[in-house]
Amino acid sequence: EPEVTQTPSHQVTQMGQEVILRCVPISNHLYFYWYRQILGQKVEFLVSFYNNEISEKSEIFDDQFSVERPDGSNFTLKIRSTKLEDSAMYFCASSTGTGDYNEQFFGPGTRLTVL
Amino acid sequence: GQNIDQPTEMTATEGAIVQINCTYQTSGFNGLFWYQQHAGEAPTFLSYNVLDGLEEKGRFSSFLSRSKGYSYLLLKELQMKDSASYLCAVTDSNYQLIWGAGTKLIIKP
Fold it and tell me: What is the pLDDT along chain A (115 residues), one digit of tens a residue?
């Protein structure tokens, strides 16, 4: 069964460093998403991406965040200068489209720890 | 603002039935999802409702009333493996998923 994959599973970084989180969405999916979940808190939408551009982004997704689809399979989230409060689980998801039925399939997540 | 409310925690007994409620106030509505999330893992899809009524899927059922901004997830014949958080999420007018904080369900033998 096709699945969304994410690497790395864990990332530890120093405050102020740049990190890139990688995702490989399901191959025939067209819409890609990043979410974060701070430990013990709810899932928060960051950004959605379609046709090589951002379609929606939340207030959390400020100038320190960027997304890219560098090739036909990968979808990345870059955090330019990490802060302590960026420590969270980051989930990538993909779906076939929007519309009435839009099941998003989630990857296993990357746990980011900023020291 | 956008708001999704669900109880923080519920406890039930193995073999019993439990109903987890969700109320929502969002800018637009394009469907409501229920996801299950085990600790440290990704959310996994359980159900989707866009029309009023009950959707049944094995031991799990989900109900929606759009006029009341209300949904519930019904879990029957509870098993220990059902211990998890259950997340209610609504797709708003921009097709953005707005998430509730989740209901932690504890199953006791």
Answer: 789 999 999 999 999 999 999 999 999 899 999 999 999 888 999 999 998 999 989 999 999 999 999 887 899 999 999 999 999 999 999 998 765 567 889 999 999 999 9
Is the minimum CB–CB distance between B9 and chain A shorter than 8 Å? no
Distance CA A8, CA A21 (A): 7
Here the tokens at position A100 are 């009435």
The CA distance from A19 to A6, in Å, is 14
- Report yes or no: A27 and A98 within 8 Å, Cβ to Cβ: no
Give the nearest chain B residue to A100 (CA atoms).
B30
Among A41, A99, A104, beta carbon nearest to B97: A104
| Three-state DSSP string of A76-92 | EEEECCCCHHHCEEEEE
